[in-house]
Amino acid sequence: MSKGFQDCAFSVSMIVIGAWLWWEAIQPRYQTSAAQDYGFSPTFLPRILIGMWIVISLILLIRSFGLWSRRVSGSEWKTLGLFVALVFAYVGLMTQIGFLFSSIPFAICAMWFMGFRRALPVALIATAFPLAVWYGFVFILKIPLPYSPWFSQI
Questions:
Q1: What pLDDT, in 10s, does the model give residues 94-125?
Q2: What are residue 3's phi and psi, to 5 degrees?
Q3: Stated pTM of the model
Q4: Separation of alpha carbons 99 and 103, rounded Å
Q5: How far apart are CA 148 and CA 154, in angstroms?
Q6: Which residue range is the domain that position 11 belongs to?
């Protein structure tokens, strides 16, 4: 199988999933919520993220057309399978140990899978980014994230 075909299939599937999520986000039942009164719809941020998802998927689709001659090695499939298993473990652990305690190790492992090996930058980014996301959601947007059973707010 060629790298271009693999990337094309992935991009098309991500565009289809993104379109479905966009269609779901514009449904009337999500436009108003009695629990939130922030001056914007509860789907405001999700629509921004879904829009970014679709744009990135379109860029990947366009990029895939230049990769049709490159073959995919077996080690790439192994790496993909391990990364998918890591994502499933992350999602499962998030509900058990909270967003922060699952996101920091996940970020370290994800960067390692992507080839980043310098310990200090990886540790700083893997700690700072989940903390910033957590702070933004919990304190700025007032959207609760899964919290640790050991601490009530983390």
A1: 888 989 999 999 999 989 888 888 999 999 99
A2: -60, -40
A3: 0.62
A4: 6
A5: 6
A6: 1-72
